[in-house]
């Protein structure tokens, strides 16, 4: 469940450093402009691909009501993935944004795979984890020294993975690529603590149904903190993966304090091949 969840919630979730040498300077970058009609409800339809093969489809929604956000998502496997390991997932997260900060409030995730369903419910208060329900719950089986145990201070100023898909940027900095990409999210997924760090790489034109403009391409780094097994191969591979990217584009629904960005493309190379989330639609919610 863990890696399917991490990928779907971050779309990698959704898992930041100065721009690489030789990249364009801020003043040379084309201005990003949203081609979205006035709407506080945004929708993104993704095809999840492994190489050139579609293995799933995901729809994300971002609804803004002033500073309050509601992020929703649902996805399902397709093609060969559905044949060998049929699965579906439902996600919902809520909270508030202020400038470039999050204040997560609640998170729900349900993942069904091969007719078995796993559920996660979390509540946050003042940046701290207030309540966790996890089924199945294997946390008690994690013991030192095999595992890096989570400490109380690790669960302060944290957010759920899905909330990382709502990226607030102070309004006056919305055209600054470094300000858009310069985030480090302290994430708790009900089982492990990790950071997601973004840093600006470049600008890239992108066109899909509902959007024709530029995206800020951010390098994505996964930084394990606690709750994981020491020297676990998959964890080490994720932490050492320097080629993951998340492309951010603006959506409607910001306020006089901040603009809102969300992923329009995600690229996750792995040792077995490259996973990507490619947009079929990016624009105002259609329902």
Q: Helix tally? A: 4
Overall shape: it is globular
Work out the helicity level. under 10%
How far is the N terminus from the C terminus? 30 Å
- Any idea what the radius of gyration is? 18 Å
Low-confidence regions:
1-39
Number of domains: 1
Describe the structure.
By secondary structure, the chain is mainly beta. It has one domain (2-46, 61-72, 86-273). The protein has helices at 2-10, 79-84, 177-181, 233-240; strands at residues 41-50, 53-65, 68-77, 87-98, 101-113, 116-125, 128-135, 167-170, 183-188, 193-208, 211-226, 245-251, 258-270, 273-284. It has four helices and 14 strands. Strands 1, 2, 3, 4, 5, 6, 7, 8, 9, 10, 11, 12, 13 and 14 form a 14-stranded antiparallel beta sheet that branches.
List keywords for this structure.
287 residues; mainly beta; 14-stranded antiparallel sheet; globular; disordered N terminus
Write the layout of secondary structure elements.
Elements: H1 2-10, E1 41-50, E2 53-65, E3 68-77, H2 79-84, E4 87-98, E5 101-113, E6 116-125, E7 128-135, E8 167-170, H3 177-181, E9 183-188, E10 193-208, E11 211-226, H4 233-240, E12 245-251, E13 258-270, E14 273-284
Antiparallel strand pairs: 1-2, 1-14, 2-3, 3-4, 4-5, 5-6, 6-7, 8-13, 9-10, 10-11, 11-12, 12-13, 13-14
Summarize the structure.
The chain has 287 residues and is mainly β.
């Amino acid at each position: 469940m863990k890696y399917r969840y991490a990928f779907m919630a971050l779309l990698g979730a959704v898992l930041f450093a100065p721009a690489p040498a030789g990249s364009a300077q801020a003043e040379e970058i084309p201005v990003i402009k949203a081609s979205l009609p006035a709407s506080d409800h945004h929708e993104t339809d993704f095809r999840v691909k492994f190489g050139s093969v579609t293995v799933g489809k995901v729809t994300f929604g971002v609804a803004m009501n002033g500073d309050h956000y509601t992020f929703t998502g649902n996805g399902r496997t397709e093609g060969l993935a559905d044949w060998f390991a049929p699965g579906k997932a439902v996600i919902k997260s809520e909270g508030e944004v202020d400038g470039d900060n999050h204040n997560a409030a609640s998170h729900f995730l349900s993942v069904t795979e091969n007719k078995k369903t796993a559920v996660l419910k979390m509540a946050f208060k003042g940046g701290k984890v207030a309540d966790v329900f996890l089924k199945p719950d294997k946390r008690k089986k994690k013991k030192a020294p095999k595992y890096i145990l989570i400490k109380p201070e690790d669960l302060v100023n944290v957010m759920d993975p899905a909330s990382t898909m709502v990226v607030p940027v102070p309004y006056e900095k919305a055209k600054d690529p470094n300000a858009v990409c310069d985030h480090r999210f302290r994430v708790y997924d009900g089982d492990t603590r990790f950071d997601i760090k973004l840093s600006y790489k470049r600008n890239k034109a992108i066109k899909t149904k509902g959007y024709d403009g530029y995206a800020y391409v951010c390098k994505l780094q996964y930084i394990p903190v606690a709750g994981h097994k020491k020297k676990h191969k998959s964890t080490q591979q994720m932490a050492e993966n320097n080629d993951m990217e998340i492309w951010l584009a603006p959506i409607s629904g910001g306020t006089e304090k901040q603009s809102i960005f969300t992923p329009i493309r995600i690229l996750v190379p792995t040792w077995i091949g490259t996973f990507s989330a490619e947009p079929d639609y990016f624009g105002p919610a259609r329902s």
